[in-house]
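Re-running NAD-dependent epimerase/dehydratase family protein to confirm reproducibility after the cluster update. Everything else is unchanged from the original entry.
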Amino acid sequence: RILITGALGQIGCELANRLRQLYGDDAVLTTDIRQDLTEATLSGPFRLLDVTDGNAFYEAAQEHRADTIIHLAALLSATAETKPMLAWQLNMGGLLNALETARALGCQLFAPSSIAAFGPDTPKNGTPQDTLQRPATMYGINKVAGELLCDYYFHKYGIDTRGLRFPGLISHAAPPGGGTTDYAVDMYVNAVKTGKYTSYIDKGTFLDMMYMPDAIESVIKLMEADASRLKHRNAFNVTAMSVDPEAIAVSIRRRLPNFELDYGIDPLRQAIADGWPDAIDVSAAREEWDFCAEYDLDKMTDDMLSSLFGKQLYGKKGAI
Ligand code: VAH
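Result of re-run:
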């Protein structure tokens, strides 16, 4: 029985639906700091939860008889840079409450890290699973501290903590919020809406990205992996592609030849992106739990555009 925090977010809403398909609607309790009428709240139990309230976190998990916690509630990189103190309180306070709840109830815990956990001095290409991590953003500091905290709870208390270093995630079901890699989602949405996009990230800025279906399957595959195979726990590098805005535009133009891309750089988010790797190495995830990504850039583009056009035609709620 699973409790998901941040269930209305970009990852949460799709992961909730997938887990309900696999384990049944009632087995998955979705929670978030706000409520709105989406599938994540309508297709099964939902509860308002502020993850910085440790008692409320424990009560929600205990009343749901949770044996697994998927902790996604967080402030992402760009927002965290504008509100660093709130980011520390939410990202670290929330994670500590998730860990303490998992310890009290004996739950397995998934908590995501990010390529943001690497910094400007980290090798940018073929970034190893184990390497220098001195991130220069509040979000990156939260992610490194989170990786270490989750390892600590595994070694000290035997809590089955597991996590992935997510790259930028691209999806159409729910808009991303406050990230740096959101530009990639915005580009697809605007390609469909207006046929043009002004990118706040510059050409030549290569970042790791992955399509949401691959991210969802990776979470499930890692959580179900044979623990005896795991040499790492809370920070597996995973990615499907290393792209810059130009590469995405070329892929979009295979379907929308007139798509126009220009640039209006956001110094804050460009500086964040410049501190991140270009292309990370995923060999540990492959060796320890058979990670593999199904979607490359063009396959992702085709699915994104057809899904977004479908939403536009039928006016469905979502990223558009
Ligand atoms: C962000 N989408 O941009 C998140 C993610 C690697 C990027 O951590 O902050």
